[in-house]
User: What shape does this take?
Amino acid sequence: MTQVISQKIISLFENKGGSMYGGEEVTQLEHALQCAHQAAENNASDELITAALLHDVGHLLHDLPDDASDNGIDDVHEELGATFLENYFKPGVVEPVKLHVAAKRYLCSTVDGYWESLSRPSQISLEFQGGKMNETEMKKFEESPFYKDAIELRKWDDLAKDPELKTATVEHFVKNIENSIK
Assistant: This one.
C-alpha cells in the first residue's frame, strides 16, 4: 500500500507540478522540492520533510487558474491538502500542512519585519487568508501540538522560491513519504 500512495504523490506532481507557483518564478514542483530540501537540510523528521514536500498539494487538487491568488481568490489549499493527506498520512504530516497558512499569519503578528520579508505574492495572499492574527487567534494557534512544526514549515516555504536552486527529484523523497504513511 505504501508504494501505491507514494506513486500517487509522484503522479500528482508529474501531472500538475509544472504549473507556476502563484506569481513566483518557480513551478509548484520546484517549490515543493525546495521546501523539502530545506527540511532535509535542517535534519527534520520524515514526517516534517513529507509535510514540506506536500504542504501545497492543495494547489494541485483544484482546477483554478495559476493566477487565482492574483485575482483575490483564496483557494483554501491548506484545507484541501490536509483533507486529501489525512486519508494516507500521520498527523505529523497533515497538521503542519493544515497550519502553514496560519503560521504565516502568526509570524506576521509576532515577528518584527516578517511581513516585509515575504515575497510580494505572499504578502498579497496574506490579506485574503485573514491578515495578521489577533491575540485570540494567536493563543488558539499556539494550542496546537503541531504549531512549532508549522512555523518551521512556513520558514522553509518562504525560502523555497529560488528559480536558480537545483534540488533532488520527488523520487529522492520516497523513503520519507513511505515512512510517514499511517
